[in-house]
Amino acid sequence: MNDTKSMIKNALILFAITLVAGVLLGIVYQVTKEPIAYQDKLAQDKANQSVFATAATFDDVATDEAGAAAISEQFTGVTVESVKEAKDSAGTGLGYVIQVKSKGYGDFIDYTVGITNEGNVNGISIIKIAETPGLGMNAEKVVVPQFADKAATQFSVVKNGQLSDPATQIEAISGATITSRAVTNGVNAAVAYFENVLKGGN
What is the DSSP letter of 124? Predict the structure, then answer.
């Protein structure tokens, strides 16, 4: 009998602890949800401005689901997250900011790709990356600058100083070819989306 009472007591204590922990987690989530969302928006706004410094506004463009699905099939590990049209202070469209997510070595890499209406890559800006420190984490310094002011085309990755065509080739980070290819794959996906959906729809 005492054993039964003890089991019931322990079960009730465990239930109470679980209930309190659940309530506390819910409260913490509610308290932190808005600040996290605000910080995410700031990061995205900064990335948008980084790839279109002359833009005054960035207007949401509805993502073409069929087009995005086709891109995901063509470029494994990449998804088109969102699209915004960059406009100047007069409201004239300058181009598009395409946010993509690409599977890297450790986790997904989130970044924006700016493409002008004339078909040039203004640049890319990383929002979130969690690759290997000292290797893949060097993408910001090594890979990102290589895309600035290039014609929007399909890029390939080369390594060990084999760069022969800077217009279409991206030199890999030493020891982090997977990360380099992941970023390049995402840019290629953004270019394809621009060519097939955005440019094709104009």
Answer: E
d(CA 115, CA 125): 12
Residue for token pair 């100047």: 88
Q: Along the 202 residues of the chain, how does pLDDT read in single tens digits?
A: 567 777 777 777 887 788 777 777 777 666 665 665 556 677 778 889 999 999 999 999 999 999 999 999 999 999 999 999 999 999 999 999 999 999 999 899 999 999 999 999 999 999 999 999 999 999 999 999 999 999 999 999 998 878 889 899 999 999 999 999 999 999 999 999 999 999 855 5
pTM: 0.79
Q: Are 143 and 180 in contact (CB under 8 A)?
A: yes
CB contact at 8 A, 110 and 125: no
First CA to last CA distance, the chain:
79
